[in-house]
């Protein structure tokens, strides 16, 4: 019976070590703290809506200039990571 107890204790130690290896550290478990909340991603449709409103308001040349500023001739060629900036610039034009 003593030999069985020793094997059980060794098995318990091995299981505890495995559990420690597979448990993330406390620092990893916490999400990174940020001072500002993340802004929601701007979609192509949102940018299209703002640019469409500008065009309807007679600012087609300005819309074309914005697209050229981003190195494209048509909205579908704009990189998704630039949607936020493009939308912001378009909104500024609509208030000007």
What would the keywords be for this entry?
single chain, 96 residues, mainly alpha
Strand portion? under 5%
- Uncertain spans: none
Biggest sheet layout: none
**Number of H/I helices:** 5
Element-by-element helix/strand order: HHHHH
Oligomer type: single chain
Structural class, please?
Answer: mainly alpha
N-to-C span? 88 Å
Structure description:
By secondary structure, the protein is mainly alpha-helical. It has a domain at 44-94. The protein has helices at residues 2-22, 26-29, 44-56, 60-69, 83-94. Helix 3 (44-56) packs antiparallel against helix 4 (60-69), helix 3 (44-56) runs parallel beside helix 5 and helix 4 packs antiparallel against helix 5 (83-94). The longest helix has 21 residues, at 2-22. The protein is rod-shaped, with a radius of gyration of 28 Å.
Q: Could you provide a short overview of the structure?
A:
This protein has 96 residues and is mostly helical. Helices cover 62% and strands 0% of the residues.
